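Lab notebook page, bench 4
Experiment: in silico fold of construct C2
Operator: M.H.
Input chain length: 402 residues
Purpose: comparison with the prior construct
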Amino acid sequence: MAASWLWGQPTLLCSSPSKGKYVGAGLDRANDLPFGGCLKITFFGLTLSSSWGNGHATPYRAVLQALHRRGIDLVFYEKDVPYYAKHRDFSSCEYCDLELYSDWNSVQAQALRDAGESDIVVVGSYTPEGARIGDDLLKLAKPLHVFYDLDTPVTLNRLNQGPLDYLRREQIPEFDLYLSFTGGGLICRLEQQYGARIARPLYGCVDPDEYHRVPSRDDFACALSYVGTYAPDRQAKLDELFLEPARQRTDLRFVLAGSLYPFEWTWPGNVARFEHVAPSDHSALYSSSLATLNVTRQEMAASGYCPSGRFFEAAACGTPILTDYWEGLESFFDVQCELHVVHTPDDVLALLNAPPGQLQQAAERARNRTLEEHTGEVRAKEFLAHCEEAYRHKNLAAGVRA
C-alpha cells in the first residue's frame, strides 16, 4: 500500500471495502475524502443501538455507515442503560465496533486505548458522564478532539445555569472542533461567547437506503401522521395542529407514534397510537400517510436553523410534510414548493382536503432536495471537511506546518 502524510505522521492508505479503491487524499475523488490515511475514529455518544425516545441514533447511523464506506475504522461507546436495552434495535453492527458498557470505570482503560489510537475522537451531547469522559479524552495527545452537540440550544441554555453531566462550559475551548446540530447565530455565539476554537454546523440527515417509498400498510394508513417523543414544550402546538384537526375530521384516521406520553393523556378516538415504531418500519409509516406533521421543540424553534431528522426521513420517503415555521427553515427546503407551513388547524385541514397531486408534487421536490443535500453521505463529507479544517487550525496554532 502507498504511504501518505496524515497529520504530521506517516500512515498507510487503506482499501475501501465498498469500492475496492485506496482511500486517500487525491486517490478517491469520487468520495471527496478531505484527507487520506487509514483513519480510526472513536465516538462516545448517547446511543447508537436504540432509537427509542431519542433523535440521536438514526443520524449517528447514517453518518457512521457513510464513513465506514470510505474504509474508516469506527468504534462507538454507548452506556448500556435499562431503557435503551429494553428497546434495542441491535447490539452489534457491521459498520462499526459497538461497545456497550455498564459504567465508565469498567471500560475506561479499553476506551482510552481505542481513543489514544484514533485520529479523531468524538463526544456527543447527552453522553452519560460525558464531561468526565471528555476530561480523560482531552489528555490524549494524538487525536483531534471533537464535541458533537445534537442539542445545542438546550445545552447552551442549561450551561448558563451550571455544569452538565455531559459538558462543562470550561471544556468548550479545549475541544479542537465543536459541531452543532443547530446553525445560524448559535455558531457565532459558540466561538465568541463560549470560546469554541472552531464551531461548525453538522445538521441531521437520512440514510436513503433505510428511508424510501414502500407499499402502504393498513395498520399505518392515515390522513396525517406525527412521529415524535412526548415533550411538554411542544404539546400545545401538537394539540393545535394535530389533535384539533383530528377532532374536526372524525371521518379521517390519524396516527401518532412516539414514547413517553403521559398515561393520563387522552386523544380522539380516530387517532391510532403507537408507543414505538422501529426505524425498520418508519418507511412504511411515512409511505402510508397522506401527509406527516413536524412540530419543533420550543428551544429549537427559538434558535432556528435546527431541522429535525424527521424532516429528511419523511422527505426521503416521498411523504408530503406539514410543519410549523422557524427561522432558517428556507435554508433546508423551499417553503413555497417543497413543504407546507401551517399555523392553525384550518391550515392543516385545508391541505388534507387539497388534491393529492398537489401534495405529491411538493413531496417529490422535497425528496429530490433531500437526496442531494441531506443524506448521511453528504454529512460524512462535511464532517471530514470540518475535521480537516480543525486539524489545520490546530497545527497553525501549534506552529506546525500542516
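Observations: The chain has two domains: 3-205+376-398, 222-373. The domain at 3-205+376-398 is CATH 3.40.50.2000 (Rossmann fold).
Next step: discuss at group meeting.
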